[in-house]
Amino acid sequence: MIVFVSGGARSGKSLVAEQCVQQYADGKTCYYVATADIYDSEMAERVGHHQARRANHWVTLEAPLNIEQAVAQVPNGHAALLDCLTLWASQVMFNTQEDAAPVSETEAFALLVRALHDARRRGVTLVVVSNDLNEALLPASAEVWRYVEFLQGLHRWLAAQADRVVEVVAGQSIEWKAAGAP
To answer: Which Pfam families match (predicted)?
Structure first.
């Protein structure tokens, strides 16, 4: 099962997604595919808050870029949270890590496709979180506009592939596509 959870910044989508993973995990170990690269104190504080909220039955897999490799580490039949596609897409497009090879948008899309297909094939429930940036003001920069287009393209594809699509507004879930619905 693939679940796509989106919403605005600080809307509560990560908490909703964590609860979703725990429901699907049915008591098994939960996996957290972390795409965040900690680059300042605010990001470190946010990551620490997320880690403190999760219980000890969560295993974290760090994947700033290679989400396919991280998802492959989740055992068959388990549930995992990929948090978040927004950060992952920004690292694809604006990667400044010296030790990381650049990844094109085409290669990144292929990584996402393979990760989802692998999860589905192995019975892994994968809950993917991302920020909905379409509700913000249009970007003035061509580079940021290209990023928004890339991310929204990923969102459209992911929503079409997902069994469930959930939007979070002010901590409340709105089910746009339910499992089993066309």
So the answer is: CobU (PF02283)
Catalytic residue from among 50, 57, 78, 117 = 50
Domain-located, residue 58: yes
Taking the C-alpha atoms of residue 71 and residue 124, their distance in angstroms, rounded to an integer, is 9
Q: Which residues are annotated as a binding site?
A: 7-14, 34-36, 62, 83
Residue 182 lies in a domain: no
> Is 50 known to be catalytic?
yes
Boundaries of domain holding 72: 2-177
pLDDT at residue 6, as a whole number: 95
User: Which residues make up each annotated binding site for GTP?
Assistant: 7-14, 34-36, 62, 83
Alpha carbon separation from 178 to 145, 159, 175 (Å, rounded)? 31, 11, 6
**Count: domains in the chain:** 1
The CATH number linked to 103 is: 3.40.50.300
